[in-house]
Design brief:
This protein is α/β, with parallel strands linked by helices and about 425 residues long. The chain is built from 15 helices and 14 strands. The longest helix has 23 residues. The structure holds 4'-deoxy-4'-aminopyridoxal-5'-phosphate (PMP).
Length: about 425
């Protein structure tokens, strides 16, 4: 089999760096091996790059494309909306319908506000929590990601050395240039450790507890049995606002997100990604009394592009399809098959590895074969070897994120899965042979 060449992407990236910083518009697209790709189009589970390669895509735009790259109903709805104009700074019926669908599908959603990115709706949630409690501190957990801005980019990916003792992590800045004072009211805790949270809440100064209800940005770690229930009770007891950041899990692990899957209802929740299958839509949803503080208590939330009509049309079309539940049944069955298939082929080739998470978003980790339950467990992963694997997989037509996450869409059918597993089998055989030499 001839391997894919990425030469044209490499050349165009070199040229693009002269006008676009690093050739990219997000730091998370930098440094990808063998080169960041230049994409010409997407179709179902596939991406086509400018070298003419067809790649089975498991990035899915970093998660949003749950219905694949070009679902007809979503594209048609967005296109039709454009015939009516672009942006109105007024309300639309489509926006009301999107809000109604979110309220119908998401357990905590009594009211909704829309935005354009996950990062910004998290900021709105923090404001509400502080306004509602009159307290300042936000509890955040090691390894959780809530956006790239100063207020939350703390301890997202610390090393074992920089992070301090596992049970009492040190606050670690996520970016050069970050305002050091932006961490003054952030308290970092280990996730999946109820006692640590209960002790911190007992200090009585916590406005909000912000968490991914399953740690999908690191190793797709599920909450320990009873952990979320304990968190819920502890927040209620201490008066802290519980915020689930469902930007990844929302509309992906279930129609009602992780809160529905695990049966624990937060006070507020943030959404993005799958809510509009790749159009820039984010949402903050939650208790009516909290959300109405935007109206009656002087809490400000704004944004020129909020509830952009074209994006709202895409959201309505996406949510209508997701609401039926059929997509989740499909992804459940195929995702499990893919997880088992990858796990089996890695063990057949004698590579210690761990595949864990949910059928629609799971992680593959090398160098570890026991369950990864905490952020610190995840530091034992052999990242260098995994990058060799994703690089070799890309050369054979399978595109998976270097940091371990795999996203699945309803368009990854049996044939696509079979070809993925065959490809990975050849990739791993090659890797093992190389290391045996
Ligand atoms: N929260 C979580 C859990 C996320 O995974 C992300 C993005 N990966 C964000 C917030 C930020 O969302 P956005 O990139 O849309 O700003």
């Amino acid at each position: 089999m001839t391997l894919n060449s990425f030469e044209r992407s490499r050349l165009r990236m070199d040229e693009a760096r002269r006008v676009l910083a690093g050739g990219v518009s997000s730091n998370f697209r930098l440094g990808i091996s063998p080169t960041p790709l230049v994409i010409s189009r997407g179709d179902g589970p596939y991406l086509y790059d400018i070298d003419g390669n067809r790649l089975i895509d498991y990035y899915l735009g970093m998660g949003p494309m749950i219905l694949g790259h070009n679902p007809p109903a979503v594209i048609e709805a967005a296109r039709a909306q454009l015939d009516n104009g672009i942006l109105f700074a007024g309300q639309t019926e489509t926006e009301f319908e999107a809000a109604r669908l979110v309220c119908e599908m998401v357990p905590c959603a009594q009211r909704v506000r829309f935005g354009s990115s996950g990062t910004e709706v998290v900021q709105a949630a923090l404001r509400l929590a502080r306004a509602a409690t009159g307290r300042a501190t936000i509890v955040k957990f090691e390894g959780h990601y809530h956006g790239w801005v100063d207020s939350v980019q703390w301890s997202v990916a610390p090393t074992a050395q920089s992070g301090g003792p596992p049970e009492h992590p040190i606050k670690v800045s996520g970016s050069v240039g970050q305002d050091p004072a932006s961490g003054d009211h952030i308290s970092i805790l280990p996730w999946n450790d109820l006692r640590a949270l209960e002790e911190r809440l007992a200090q009585g100064d916590v406005a909000g507890v912000l968490m991914e209800p399953a740690m999908c940005n690191t190793s797709a770690i599920a909450p320990r049995p009873g952990y979320l229930d304990g968190v819920r009770a502890a927040c209620t007891d201490s008066g802290a606002v519980l915020i689930f950041d469902e930007v990844i899990t929302g509309f992906r692990v279930a129609a009602g997100g992780a809160q529905q899957l695990f049966g624990v209802t937060p006070d507020l929740a943030t959404f993005g990604k799958a809510i509009a299958n790749g159009f820039p839509v984010a949402a903050l949803a939650g208790r009516a009394d909290l959300m109405d503080m935007f109206v009656s208590a002087g809490v400000v939330h704004g944004g020129t592009y909020n509830a952009h009509p074209m994006c709202m049309a895409a959201a309505v079309a996406t949510l209508r399809e997701l609401r039926t539940g059929a997509v989740y049944l499909t992804i459940e069955e195929r995702g499990r098959r893919l997880m088992t298939g990858i796990s089996d082929l890695l063990s057949r080739h004698g590579l210690p590895a761990r595949v864990q998470g949910f059928p629609g978003i799971f992680h593959v980790a090398f160098g570890i074969d026991s369950p990864i339950e905490t952020y610190r467990d995840s530091l034992g992963v052999d990242r260098a070897r995994y990058v060799e694997f994703t690089t070799a997989a890309l050369a054979r037509g399978v595109r998976a994120l270097e940091r371990g996450a795999w996203f699945l869409s309803s368009t990854h059918d049996d044939d696509v899965l079979e070809r993925t597993l065959e490809t990975l089998d050849a990739v791993v055989a090659g890797l093992v042979a190389e290391h045996d030499d």
